[in-house]
Q: What sequence folds into this?
């Protein structure tokens, strides 16, 4: 969700930035949360975004090394130690929407949208 929103807003603002999202164990949940995947797709489409063929990826040392900014959506997970070596590490307190209803996914989408707009405002300054 965040990657899609960030990249579309950058394009709309004509900014030369790109987001790539990743997790610690993306394959672990594959197929277990099909309902959540549908809810995420619905929530982002309602706001004019399209996830397309975006797939979950595993976070790597290389991603952290070359990222200008690393944003953790929350700090309730065990992230690899190398994540702490990011040049600019930010933690956003975004609740996990897993297992929640569509309205909760909408709430999270809107929170992420606001946080990304604030980040892009900072990057433009």
A:
């Amino acid at each position: 969700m965040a990657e899609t929103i960030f990249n579309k807003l950058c394009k709309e603002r004509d900014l030369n930035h790109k987001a790539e999202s990743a997790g610690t164990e993306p394959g672990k949940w594959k197929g277990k949360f099909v309902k959540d995947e549908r809810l995420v797709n619905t929530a982002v489409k309602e706001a004019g975004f399209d996830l397309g063929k975006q797939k979950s990826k595993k976070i790597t040392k290389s991603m952290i090394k070359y990222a200008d900014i690393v944003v953790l959506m929350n700090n309730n997970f065990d992230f690899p130690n190398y994540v702490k070596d990011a040049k600019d590490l930010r933690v956003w307190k975004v609740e996990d929407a897993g297992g929640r209803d569509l309205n909760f996914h909408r709430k999270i989408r809107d929170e992420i949208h606001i946080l990304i707009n604030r980040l892009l405002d900072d990057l433009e300054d």
